[in-house]
Amino acid sequence: MSLSEIKTRIAKACADAGRAEGSVTLIAVSKVQPNERVAAVLEQGHRVFGENRVQEAAGKWPDFRKSYDGIELHLIGPLQTNKARQAMELFQVIHSVDRPKVAQTIARLAQEMGHCPDIFLQINTGEEPQKAGVMPAEADAFVAEARALDLPVQGLMCIPPVDEEPSLHFALLAKIAERNGLSGLSMGMSGDFESAIALGATHIRVGSAIFGERAYG
Ligand SMILES: *Cc1c(COP(=O)(O)O)cnc(C)c1O
To answer: Among the CATH numbers 3.20.20.10, 3.30.470.30, 3.40.50.1000, 3.90.550.10, which is that of 3-210?
Structure first.
């Protein structure tokens, strides 16, 4: 599927939900994709990209930035505290602040560096033991802590369990965000971004539908 087809589907999902088209940011998730495919999407004028590993992003985006202006990078994968500084230098938005220790580290570095990426807090809506993010019951306290640390919290992020209806998780995330006065919702991927938009997503993270299947290994 092409970038323009995805944009058409986003526009339709927005129209169906009675939302303005500009209310959804498309993050093109370029992890593991060959550079030619990424360059092709840059050539079509797209500038907002997502990566899930700091190291991988550091290996390719500085070069792309020499050739293309206005690139905005979003970190969507787990962040280890020892990579936080590098992440804050590279990314404009971090969606995967998933525990107090990471929030505290970012806050301390932000003081030192004098700038901070926009922040989304990751909520483990499916309460999966292997998955990152705070439990829904701890979400309000985590939002309060991040705000007390002066982090620029834009919203919440989730990755629904693979074997469950994603819209239940999108609705839960939207509810937690609303009661905390947060407008940003990072939810929806290639297979479910339309239902995420219907439930209020402001940032959708779409990889394979734009770039094709990822070749791992
Ligand atoms: C890889 C990834 C995506 C994109 O997944 P697709 O199914 O390829 O669209 C979205 N969000 C996160 C957190 C990811 O790691």
So the answer is: 3.20.20.10
